[in-house]
Amino acid sequence: MIATRRQRSGEADPHADQPVLTAGPTPEKAAATILLIHGRGADAESILSLCDELGFRNFAALAPQAAENSWYPHSFLAPLDANQPYLDSALGRLNSLVADLLARGISSERIVMLGFSQGACLTSEFVARHPRRYGAVIGLTGGLIGPPDTPRNYPGSLAGTPVFLGTSDPDPHVPFERVKETEVVLGRMGAKVELRRYPGMPHTINDDELDACRKLLKRVVTANHHTD
What we know:
Layout: E1 20-23, E2 32-37, H1 44-48, H2 50-54, E3 59-64, H3 86-103, E4 111-116, H4 118-129, E5 136-140, E6 162-169, H5 176-188, E7 192-199, H6 207-223
Parallel strand pairs: 2-3, 2-4, 4-5, 5-6, 6-7
Antiparallel strand pairs: 1-3
Helix pairs in contact: 3-4
């Protein structure tokens, strides 16, 4: 497990002391590192099982656990203040993990962010607030956090980061319009975004999305001169 450098009270920072599950080699010995962010009501173990389906055994995988299995209590479309302090704690948790990897000499281009549902929302918002050239960003049925008309004037650049957004439509939790807005905003920040819409798909991850993930991960490996 990776220790967080963020140590505050559990009430103010509920996710800070939660465990991080790992799989694969250490980040220093891996072709790349993938951070896997679980959805509401799920857990780190469930999202970590994606590693077997993706099949990249030379990746280091980190899956942080949310306190009480939820990163924030209300819908991602609720006013930002309604989800505090949980939202800031969740974003801070991801930032501590990325900062730790960078401090260990892992290039940001060897860091992949992947989230599903609530985890996809958190991933989208995190990379918008902490832009850099990531290896890849994958948001599976999720989008930027906040109510309609939330200002999206994030500073900084994603510098050509490949982003894959896949979503069901209609989805009971994630309006397609928000995923489309996420595509536009991240593209404006310099990401190379691919959005795939799956009419009538349940709130899940499908085989086409997994295939898209595998192709992105292969590109990250190739770009960093490793072979799978």
